[in-house]
Amino acid sequence: MLGPFNTASLAGTIVQFVIFSAEPISTVRNIHLNGSTIANRELVTTTRDLKQMSEDIKSKKTPTSSTTPLSNDEQTLDELATGCKAVANELLTALADLASDGSKSRRKIVSKAVKAICGKKKLDRLSQRLQKAKTSLRCVFYSRFGRIALSKLQ
């Protein structure tokens, strides 16, 4: 018979085991049913949108003539859009590696789930880089067009 402290310790261990095993089981289930985790699918959508926005900014920032140099704001915006696109491509590649290829093999699904769990830190790092680039892009964009709007009001 277990004493009260041993019983509490056993109960705590069981709770930890259930919590610890819930994430891998949920990840395997999501990959089996949907091809990837919900968070990864949302991240793909957001990353694609941001990549498209960066491409749109780059395509619209070109000067009117080839001899006209870019202003400092335009040059900064161009560099940020280029960096944002590069991080987005890197993140999309990492997410594609974690998505299921349509195989219903248990071994492949479990393998993808393990990669998804182990690759979470890398995805978080890339996501943070993309978020910083997005924030910088937005600041420069609003700064530039805010000044243009203010100059038209005066």
Give the SSE map.
Blueprint: H1 4-34, H2 38-60, H3 72-98, H4 106-118, H5 120-153
Region (Disordered): 54-74
Describe this structure in words.
Residues 54-74 are annotated as: Disordered. The chain is mainly alpha-helical and 154 residues long. The chain has one domain (4-153). The chain has 5 helices and no strands. It has helices spanning 4-34, 38-60, 72-98, 106-118, 120-153. Helix 2 (38-60) packs antiparallel against helix 3 (72-98). The radius of gyration is 23 Å and the shape is elongated.
Quick overview:
With 154 residues, the chain is an all-alpha fold. The protein contains 5 helices and no strands.
**Largest β sheet strand count, sense and barrel closure:** none
CA gyration radius, whole angstroms:
23 Å
Helix content: over 70%
The N- to C-terminal Cα distance equals: 85 Å
The number of E-state strands comes to 0
Shape descriptor = elongated
Oligomeric grouping of the chains:
single chain
Count of helical regions: 5
Work out the strand percent: under 5%
Count of spatially separate domains = 1
Low-confidence stretches: none
Spell out the key features of this protein:
154 residues, mainly alpha, 5 helices, elongated
